[in-house]
Design brief:
The protein is mostly beta strands and 244 residues long. The protein has two domains: 145 residues, M1 Pyruvate Kinase, Domain 3 (Beta Barrel); 82 residues, no CATH class. It contains three helices and 15 strands.
Length: 244
């Protein structure tokens, strides 16, 4: 039986994963408080709408960012990193404090963090549409077998992790509809991965050649799928998943 195994959101794109027991889902939107904010770097070219991840600081260019965790309470978010003192702030008003906090863990050879920006319409998802990512624990276990070690799932920055099917079965869902708990999703496309997945989320240091393992083992560098919510409702850990 397919079921939801874990849930995550990432309030500030590329900076901090927050694990959840349940979440509201709204049709046509990313998860609430997922990738609502991002830190634009000094060379960013921002418009009035969605722009791609190249405009923001992120784990692919500053691997230490992968080790940030997040916790939202009310209007405040608390960020933690193994090499920094915890920071609690309101992201709507304290952007400068966040920029100063992440500066020491950003790659000095890349464009420096400049300002915190809030998504005006669509969340700062990695896709040009408001996606919710769905990842498969069986695929993770297959990758772990190839790596010869456990791999923290946070490195893949997914939203909904499921279990109960075989490796890579999520790719067969593309173009189909899913019922997750009481919420209907359309599965759109595979997620091609970047070097951020090679970073250990506990330390912020490289520890696994995930892209090479995927390419050598399965002929691609994809992990997980993007989906779009077609209805609204609540999704919780343990909820069943049905392929429609």
């Amino acid at each position: 039986m397919l079921n939801v195994a874990r849930l995550y959101r990432h309030p500030i794109k590329g900076i901090g994963a927050e694990e959840l027991d349940q979440t509201e889902v709204h049709a046509g939107q990313a998860l609430p408080l997922d990738r609502v904010w991002a830190v634009a770097h000094e060379a960013a070219k921002l418009g009035d709408g969605w722009v791609n991840c190249a405009n923001f600081i992120r784990g692919a260019k500053s691997g230490s960012l992968v080790a940030v965790t997040a916790k939202f309470q009310g209007d405040l978010i608390t960020l933690r990193h193994p090499d920094l003192e915890p920071l609690t702030l309101n992201p709507n008003t304290d952007g400068a404090a966040l920029v100063n906090w992440v500066r020491p863990i950003c790659n000095p050879d890349r464009a420096a963090p400049a300002r915190l920006v809030r998504a005006a319409t669509q969340a700062w998802t990695d896709s040009p549409f408001p996606s919710i990512s769905i990842l498969n624990y069986a695929s993770l276990r297959a990758l772990e077998d190839a790596a010869g070690r456990t791999l923290n799932p946070r490195r893949f920055r997914g939203n909904i992790w499921f279990d109960g099917d075989g490796p890579w079965q999520e790719f067969e869902w593309i173009g189909n509809e899913l019922l997750v708990g009481g919420v209907q999703f359309e599965v759109r496309e595979r997620i091609t991965r970047c070097t951020a997945t090679q970073i250990d989320p506990e330390t912020g240091k490289p520890d696994a050649q995930t892209l090479e393992l995927l390419q050598n083992g399965w002929g691609h560098q994809d992990f997980g799928v993007y989906a779009v919510a077609r209805t609204s409702g609540t999704v919780a850990v343990g909820d069943p998943i049905e392929i429609l």
